Amino acid sequence: MTPREFSIDVIQQLTDAGYLAYWAGGCVRDLLLGKEPHDFDVATDADPQTVREIFGHQRSIPVGESFGVMIVLGPKSAGQVEVATFRSEGEYLDGRRPESVAFCTPEEDAQRRDFTINGMFYDPISETVHDFVQGQEDLRKRVVRAIGDPHDRMEEDKLRLLRAVRFTAALNFDLDPTTADAVRGMAHQLVVVSAERIAQELKKMLTHENRGLAMSLCEQLDLLPVFLPEVVEKTIEYSLERWQQRIEFLHQLPTNSFEVAMAALLRDVPAPQRHPRQKSESGTVRAVLKRLKLSNQEVETIEWLVRKRGIFDQFADFTLAEKKRLVVSERFDDLFIMERTAASVEKRSDASFEMVERFRNEVPVGKLAPPDLLNGRELIELGFRPGEQFKHLLGAVRDAQLNEQIETKEQAIELVRKLSKD
């Protein structure tokens, strides 16, 4: 059973029990656009307790019961379906959640949703669209428009300021002027949204092929200075042309990697080598990424990519060991894609990238990353203790090996003894 088939089965069971049940939100939008939805959310007039009685306590899990939201578990191949009771919402006091909800009709439920294109319902049994917000008309017009008063919709959940941009860019639609005015006028209020939620929206924008359009809209609507002020300070201040280059850079990236896109966006922000005694990271790439609460792995990858900007221009001057270390590094492919795209956008020569490709293709794999001739355990057996000299000796042996100056363990040991006397 597919997720689609399971969601229809859920709707059929609710309907057979005498309740209204429809697909709701984004899946309806995608269906009407001729796209296959990723998820099939269900909205119903059955309350959470009734949903549990119909599907059983073991198959139905409350994830937001006070808001009327349940998860119904299906067969392994079908996954799960979110089932939410039609609801109207009280006042939003925290810019994210309503203080109260009341179960209601589909018409009233539609009015609480964010944008008209996300506010429709669809009955897959009768193949009927239920549209109380003119969402179909806005789909035809290719417009993202807030339902009702856009200021009210944005006030309810400030994350909608970014969601307006994401849907507009991802669908390549126009943003309704009144909705755009509301976003621009309330952009400064994005500060009340948690870093984690902002990062989640940013990831969705930057991993979509229209990432350049999304960032351009964020700048036009005054959102960018709120959540990425460093980009405004370090990129846009240089010149409008520099900012337009960054947008084109994002547009041309041939990968949907979040880390690569984020590194491209932060390309003009400092990414200094960190010193153990360095206390302040203010104004650096690391400061931006930590503020967004990204994972340590994401922080390390993005910071490394930014720090290595322009490195292929120096490739011809590298030692053989430096060349080998670079091309076998775990993040090499991402770095190469990013730097080659940057060179294309900035109209720079492709010669250095062709040189790197030739080197990588012509040097045998066994010589690019050969097994170590000497390891730490063996160095201890030779009488050395772990410490700074220990690390230096291992590094020197590895460099000599990669530079093809030594080839055997005996030569490695001889080099260690020679260096330890110097």
From TrEMBL:
Cofactor: Mg(2+)
Keywords, alphabetical: Magnesium, Metal-binding, Nucleotide-binding, Nucleotidyltransferase, RNA-binding, Transferase, tRNA processing
Gene3D superfamilies: Beta Polymerase, domain 2, cca-adding enzyme, domain 2
GO-annotated biological processes: tRNA processing
Pfam families: PolyA_pol, PolyA_pol_RNAbd
EC code: 2.7.7.19
Family: Belongs to the tRNA nucleotidyltransferase/poly(A) polymerase family.
CDD domains: NT_ClassII-CCAase (cd05398)
Species this chain originates from: Thalassoglobus polymorphus
UniProt protein name: tRNA nucleotidyltransferase/poly(A) polymerase
Poly A polymerase head domain: residues covered: 21-145
